[in-house]
Amino acid sequence: MRRSSLLAAAAVAIAAFALYRATLLPGMDFGDTGSFQATVGSSLITPRDGYPLYFALGNLFLWTTKSEPAHALNLASAVQAALACGLIVLVGVELSGSIAAAVAAALLFATSYTFWSQSIIAEVYALHALFVALTLWLVLRWAERPGVGRLTLFFAAYALGFGNHLSMILLAPGFTIFLLASAPRGWRSMFAPRVLALATGCALAGALPYAWNLRAFWLLPAPPHNMFDALLRFWFDVTKVDWRETMVLQVPTAIIGDHVAMYAFDLGQQFGWIGPLLGIAGLVQLARHHWRHAVLMFTLYIANVLFAFSYNVGDTHVFYLPSHLMIALLAAPGLVFAGDLIGRRQLAAALLTAYVAVRAWHDYPALDRSHDDRPTSVLAGLTKGLDDRHAILLTDLNWQLENGLTYFAKDIRPEVAHAGMPAVILYAPTLVADNAAIDRDVMLTSRARSTLAAAYGPLFPTAPDPEVAVPSLAAMVRDLPDGTRYVLCILKPTGELKLEWDEIGRALAAATGGVRVAIPDGDYFAVAGMRGRTPTFALGSNRPFRRSVDLGGVSVEVRMESWLAADTIRRMGFGHVIAARHHTLIVERGVSFAAFDADGQPIRTAYASNIFAPQPRYLIRRRTP
After folding, report:
1. S-S: 96 plus which of 333, 374, 383, 487, CB 3.0-4.6 Å?
2. Helix or strand or coil: residue 541?
3. How many folded domains does the chain comprise?
4. What is the rounded CA–CA span in Å between residue 8 and residue 4?
5. 124 and 229 assigned to the same domain
6. How many C-beta atoms surround the C-beta of residue 181 within 10 A?
7. 3-state SS assignment for residue 590
8. What gap in Å lies between CA 130 and CA 163, rounded to an integer?
9. High-pLDDT (> 90) share of the chain, %
10. The whole model's pTM is what?
11. How do residues 580-608 score in pLDDT, each as one tens digit?
């Protein structure tokens, strides 16, 4: 059975990689992804950067693939995610004793919405899932046949996992209870000097990758005074103390009910109702036959789900991933339970596999980012015509855009000179004068222009740069031919951005031929139709929804895939428009618009009040002598 399990694991890993490779983001992205892509390949990884193992493996992919850093790191996620899926098969076999059930459980997780979306971009969660599955498999193998060798492998893998993500600590309660309960000579044997020495040695070895981060302190302009000072600063940056103080266990009690509803939505998004039901059945099955395994899986699940539930961040959904993994793994013994009820274990596994295939077929267009070049397009527009011989760009952008610009100017357009306005505002007059002296223009983003004006008043007159055209939303709609299919979505924007309702009204009037469309007060709104005609579909809601509509013989699905009360960051987008099984529009907070043809191919796409909206640029006028 061991060989068959390995072959099944390899087959699932290959299938998962093929899926992720086909939908892989080809290049750069904004946010943390952009920061990772800009950092990979560097020999200097600061403690604030963290994730030394992740970057070491990223450097390996960068070296072996010889491709653009963004693509290499995206590809690394796909490989790591595929390996994680293979390991899930092995864990599922240990839990259920059934290869078919384990394969079905692994495929259930492989095609779950959030994991799939994180497996095709540069993010740390695919590698984290790999280490969660690896440590689970190793500890279960140790329990099956306890020995120093197997215990060493478990300790080593668990320690090494911290080099990727510190949330490995959430596995500690479950693993500790399981080790104590499964020790063949009683729980006291786990505190024998030999075992403690082994655990300590593995922990120290696992911490070694962070020496890379610690070393960076002495290469910075203001190095630490001594090792103690360095360690204090290291701990502050690596564990992000300043973030944890405002985010961990900081969910206001007034929105706990909303978080419960969000979690229910999230579970449905990943698995439908089948996954949680099978997870419960699996826990019952383990409790009946392997109570220690049941305690292990429940403790791992509850520790991770409670942490994510109480973590007050803008991308809570990704922190639920380890708990999703536990549900998927419990589905394996759950299938055995269900199979025993109907007297056909293989049939139960086959039915879940078919269910997974249908869900994957339906979600594939929405999760396909193989043609997503929006981040590159936004920054190409902002930096159009710039080079360091003739101009410098001063920016004050949303942090997600800033991270993307760092990568863009480093690896795509290295001739673009840029600096953050907050970093130069104190000596802005000197900077402007020095650039003027060498006949170099100073360009500004919108917020950088406002910051400069607030600090220095009329000292620096500015004018819009005619090189960068920013058409209005209405203009993007107005000149479309009558009868053109379109979808326009309005999602409540983040606090720093505001909806321009007058402009939205003009755009709607242009789309509907003057037909008035009432926009209800809610988080989500979508209108679809044919240009110049009464809309075919209009819906507003305070909860995410999915609706299908026929536009001129084209099947169109509008999918809202976020929970706006909690989500400020969604790497995959906050929703999708799928037309003729084509990923026609990734919906973001603010306004998202697409006009498309009979094949679902976008003719025109426009964004407003979000990070994908075109950015205007301004020029500081030079004073004439």
Report:
1. 333
2. strand
3. 3
4. 6
5. yes
6. 14
7. strand
8. 13
9. 76
10. 0.94
11. 999 999 999 999 999 999 999 999 999 99
